[in-house]
Structure formats: structure tokens, C-alpha cells
Write a structure and sequence with these properties.
Blueprint: E1 3-12, E2 15-22, E3 27-31, H1 41-46, H2 57-66, H3 76-83, H4 88-98
Antiparallel strand pairs: 1-2, 2-3
Length: 108
């Protein structure tokens, strides 16, 4: 029996499918598994790391540490509101800590 290969490849769930047609008209489909890049669990859950300002997290933190200190009369929350676009990752951490109540006694 002679087999004819049709080169109709269809994308099904990112796996190419090769359909072979035999002389009697029956078809056989062969799924060829595509090689996938291994993804770490954290990258899978959070998605790819996006550098919005062109800095890695470490470079952004170093840039923040090199920043000139604002006057002590400046409100930390207002300063972070104004500088959120310059330090997006560090500002998220800062706002988490700045919004913690200053007392350990529960309110009544």
C-alpha cells in the first residue's frame, strides 16, 4: 500500500497535525508535539517580568537609595504619590509599610 502525505498542517492547541491519506481513503492523524520552553512556577503564576521603566528591580532599588532625601516636613505618602512613576516597584512595597497602623491596640 502506498501512502500519500498531505501537507495540511493545522494548529490545534499549538501542536501541528499531519494527516496521512491512504489509497483506500482512510486517514491517519499524527500529532507532533512542539518543544516548549520550560516555565518556572512563579513566572507561570505572575506572568513574565515586565520592566516598565527599563530598570531591573535591583537597579530601581539602587536608584532609589541614591536619591536625595526629601525634607523631613514632606509627607511620605505624598512623596510616594508624586514619585510612583519613577520607582513603581519600590513604591508598592513602601505603601504596604506606610499604611500599617502605628498602634498594636485594636480600636473599640
Amino acid at each position: 500500500m502506498e501512502r500519500f502525505k498531505e501537507q495540511d498542517t493545522e494548529e490545534t492547541e499549538s501542536h501541528p497535525v499531519t494527516i496521512e491519506v491512504e489509497e483506500d481513503g482512510t486517514q491517519e492523524a499524527e500529532v507532533i508535539a512542539a518543544k516548549r520552553k520550560k516555565v518556572k512556577a512563579l513566572d507561570y503564576l505572575l506572568g513574565p517580568e515586565v520592566e516598565k521603566n527599563g530598570f531591573t528591580p535591583r537597579e530601581e532599588f539602587d536608584s532609589f537609595l541614591a536619591e536625595i532625601e526629601p525634607p523631613r516636613s514632606t509627607s511620605p505618602n505624598l512623596w510616594w504619590k508624586d514619585n510612583h512613576s519613577r520607582f513603581p516597584l519600590v513604591s508598592k512595597v513602601a505603601q504596604c509599610y506606610l499604611n500599617i497602623p502605628a498602634t498594636s491596640t485594636p480600636s473599640e
